[in-house]
Every structure is written in C-alpha cells, then in structure tokens.
Amino acid sequence: MPTGDEMYTLLTSVDLTYKLQMVFSQLTTALLWASVTEIVLEIGLFIVFCAAAMRFGGIWLMLLHIPRGLLGLLLAWKMPRSHNVIDAIDWESIRL
C-alpha cells in the first residue's frame, strides 16, 4: 500500500500531466485554426483583387501569409500528441 507522500507525489504528477495535455491540445487547436483562417482570408483577398485590381494592389504585400499558414498546418500536424508522449515514457525506470 502506498504511503501518503507517495500518493501526493503521484496525484501531483497526474495533475501536472493533465494540465500539460490541455496546453498541448489548446496550442494545436489554435495553431490549426489560425493557419486555416489565414489561408482562407488570403484566397478571399485574391478573389477581391481579381475583381478590382486597380484599387487593391496591396495584396502583393501580404503574399507571405499563405506559406506561413501552410507552415502552421505542417507544425500542427507534426506536433506530438499526448498519447505519443505517454508512449515515449520509460515506465520501468520510474520508482515511486
């Protein structure tokens, strides 16, 4: 039977792990939707440019938003998920 100090250490670790998982999830979600929004807005702005090219020449100054959005999608896709982090833990070396 674990002692009180061991249970406290275990529960503190579980709490920290749960909070870290929430941070990873929120970061991935924010990165994903910011990238999608950036790409969709740039496509919409290009359509507006095609309709009124003489009044909207500044779209070429915002051209780098598309690669930045694609990079954000790539980062969101490659970011480790919480189950990958848990699988990478060496449980044999952990002693309580």
Characterization of the model:
Helix content is 71%, strand content 0%. It is mainly alpha-helical and 96 residues long. The protein starts with a helix and ends in a 9-residue tail after the last helix. The chain has 3 helices and no strands. The protein is rod-shaped and about 75 Å long. The chain has helices at 4-51, 65-78, 82-87. The longest helix has 48 residues, at 4-51. It has one domain (4-80). Helix 1 runs antiparallel to helix 2.
Keywords:
96 residues, mainly alpha, rod-shaped
Number of individual domains: 1
| Poorly predicted spans | none
Distance N to C terminus: 11 Å
Oligomerization? single chain
Number of strands: 0
> What integer value in Å does the Rg equal?
22 Å
Give the overall pLDDT as a whole number. 85
Roughly what fraction of the amino acids lie in strands? under 5%
- Helix and strand element order: HHH
Class inferred from helices and paired strands: mainly alpha
Largest sheet: none
Residues in helix, %: over 70%
Give the overall form. rod-shaped
Number of helices: 3
